[in-house]
Amino acid sequence: MTGRRLLITLVWCFLLFFVTVSAGLGGGLPTKSVQALAGEELSYFMDFLVFEKLATGRLSLAATDRPNVYRVELVGRTLGIASWLTGNRVQTYTTLMELAPDGSLRTIEHTSRVQKKTFGKIKDRGKRFRYNYETRKVSMAKARDGVYRPGEDFVFPEGVQPVDMLAAFYNLRAGLYGPLAYGAEFKIPSLTRDGFSDIEVVILTVEEQAKHSHFPSDGMLLQITLDPEVFDTGGGSIYVWFNGFGTPERGIVEDVIGLGNVKGYRTEVLP
Fold first, then answer.
1. Are 144 and 125 spatial neighbours (Cβ–Cβ below 8 Å)?
2. Pair type for strands 147-155 and 248-256
3. Whole-angstrom Cα distance, residue 243 to residue 179?
């Protein structure tokens, strides 16, 4: 059991917002623009094996003082015995994104940061990806104790306009990848530390959802596939359940290495 494996599961919560569902859940789902969602903040607890409230996750969206530029932040932190085992580990993902002329969101910069205490000393590590849609490149840099050093550049594949995971969430939620309906499937170009890779999203049909006994039969269930390195999984899927009011209430990350299935659930108040 490692600190990375304990906390990496917190990232699942950014996926919990990929779709907005109405109480009616008819043939099509309503969408919300980033302007309508600015100011939103949602919080979650995580459980695994016999442990409850092992960690927390919080996702927030805010407008910046720059026109049409928004900031998304996802923060995860371990609690209780997990905090002791991982050195009070805190993991932060931040994206700056802008509205493009076509109304979609484009990533300006995406950063990840891990802070933890080891042998009495604070370790601070991170990565930064800067997107340039004119030169069609993403520049990566690695950080240690706040100091960034240049890394690899990635050139966009022909005909592809990739975004990071958090910008992809809001584009999907706005319906910019297509109508949101039962049985719909989406492939969203994105980037991992190893290069370009699609995020795959499937909205299960009512019949398919009924086969998953962990989730209620109402609402709507999504199956999401990412590059395994993102969640340190053995190839399992991510399932997210929305209630009839469009609130993401439950989720499972399957086959996290060393932990098995990790469960998350929404809470109104975090410690």
1. yes
2. unpaired
3. 19
8 A C-beta contact, residue 186 and residue 171:
no
What DSSP assignment string belongs to 36-62?
HHTT-EEEEEEEETTEEEEEEEEEEEE
Please give the distance of CA 144 from its chain centroid, rounded to a whole number.
Answer: 23
Residue in the structure block whose two tokens are 């998953």 = 212
Given a contact cutoff of 8 angstroms between Cβ atoms, the answer to whether 156 and 132 are in contact is no
In single-letter form, the type of residue at position 220 comes to: M
Instruction: Scan for tokens 């990071």, then name that residue.
Output: 164
Structural domain boundaries, residue 49 = 3-267
184 φ, ψ to 5°? -70, 150
d(Cα 248, Cα 174) in Å, to the nearest integer?
16
Q: What is the DSSP string of 118-149?
A: ETTEEEEEEEEEEEETTTTEEEEEEEETTEEE
Sign of CA dihedral 62, 66, 69, 73: negative
Between CA 221 and CA 203 the distance in angstroms is 6
- CA dist 97 and 105 (Å) reads 6
How many CB atoms sit inside 10 A of residue 139's CB? 16
Report the candidate in 217, 157, 158, 162 with the shortest Cα–Cα distance to residue 188. Answer: 162
Please state, in angstroms and rounded to a whole number, the distance separating the CA atoms of residues 35 and 177: 18
- Structure-token pair, residue 194: 């190893």
Check: CB of residue 271 under 8 Å from CB of residue 255: no
The pTM of this model reads 0.81
**Number of independent structural domains in the chain:** 1
Q: What is the mean pLDDT of each run of 10 residues along the chain (271 residues)?
A: 51 43 46 84 83 86 96 89 78 94 93 84 89 94 90 90 90 82 92 84 93 86 79 74 74 76 77 47
